[in-house]
Specification:
Strand order of the largest sheet: 1-2-3-4-5-7-6
Shape: globular
Number of helices: 5
Structural class: alpha+beta
Helix content: 25-40%
Length: 150
């Protein structure tokens, strides 16, 4: 039997699940950032999500990942730990690439797995700077459809 998978917009009833995925994913991927940082920002992220474009990846009726956008800026892609490396992040990016001509994001330099993922997905590093809230080095990465000049 095949899995039923779909990408759909965030619904109000999805918020608690999405915030849990956001928090646990950040704690797992960013052990170099104190855990209190993520705890302190849950309510800020809840508000930001209500103002952002959020797409849910659902598998067999269960939310296993999502992506958040503000215009052409990807605020983050988050996938449940046990579902990583199964093409969910790729599917979410493909979904966005069909709807945007340009995408921009920031990723912590120490999150080498994410940096490698975005590079495989056609993103190029454009800038390197210290992220003010955490003091961590991060990359600005960009993707452009059909060689549109930056």
């Amino acid at each position: 039997m095949e899995k039923e998978e779909m990408i759909r917009p965030l619904g109000i009833s999805d918020m608690d699940t999405v915030l849990r995925i956001w928090k646990t994913s950040n704690l797992q991927a960013h052990s170099f950032v104190p855990s209190g940082y993520w705890e302190r920002n849950v309510e800020l992220v809840r508000k930001a999500m209500s103002d952002a474009e959020v797409w849910i990846y659902e598998s067999d009726g269960r939310i296993v990942g999502f992506v958040g956008l503000a215009g052409d800026y990807i605020a983050g892609i988050f996938v449940e730990m046990e579902c990583r490396s199964r093409g969910i992040g790729h599917a979410l990016l493909d979904f966005l690439k069909k709807r945007h001509r340009f995408l921009l994001l920031h990723v912590y330099e120490k999150n080498s797995r994410a940096v490698a993922f975005y590079r495989r997905e056609g993103f190029e590093c454009r800038d390197r700077h210290v992220e003010e809230d955490t003091g961590e080095m991060e990359w600005t990465m960009a993707w452009m459809k059909e060689n549109i000049p930056f």
